[in-house]
Design goal:
By secondary structure, the chain is α+β, with helices and mostly antiparallel strands. The protein has one domain (about 5-65): Peptidase S8 propeptide/proteinase inhibitor I9 (Alpha-Beta Plaits, 2-Layer Sandwich). Helix content is about 15%, strand content about 30%. The protein contains two helices and four strands; from the N terminus they run βαββαβ. The protein has a four-stranded antiparallel sheet, covered by helices on one side. A hairpin with a 4-residue loop joins β2 and β3. The longest helix is centred in the middle third of the chain and has 9 residues, at about 45-55. The radius of gyration is 20 Å and the shape is elongated. InterPro entries: DUF2129. It holds the Pfam family DUF2129. Keywords: Cytoplasm.
Length: about 90
């Protein structure tokens, strides 16, 4: 199946040099205005890859994406109150 992926937001100082990040993982988005790159890497090698990326001269800061930790499954614990607002 698909390998587990981890997302990172990498703040860079040079956008031309930031194109070289593709050899470390999948570059999903590159912001020209705010100078950051959204990148996905395999979760089992993520720490080793980020150690190497952190050493690059054009990398200012690295943040891990918390998207995988956000709850996306919702339950309907409260009753439906649409009947109180007038019906069709």
């Amino acid at each position: 199946m698909f390998p587990e992926r981890t997302g990172y937001i990498i703040w860079v100082s040079d956008l031309k040099a930031a194109r070289n990040l593709e050899k470390y993982g999948s570059v999903h988005y590159l912001s020209r205005r705010m100078h950051y790159v959204v990148m996905y890497v395999n979760a089992d090698r993520a720490e080793d890859i980020m150690k190497n990326v952190r050493k690059l001269s054009y990398v200012r800061k690295i943040e891990r994406s918390y998207r995988t930790e956000i709850k996306t499954e919702y339950t309907k614990d409260i009753p439906d109150q649409t009947q109180y607002y007038g019906g069709l």
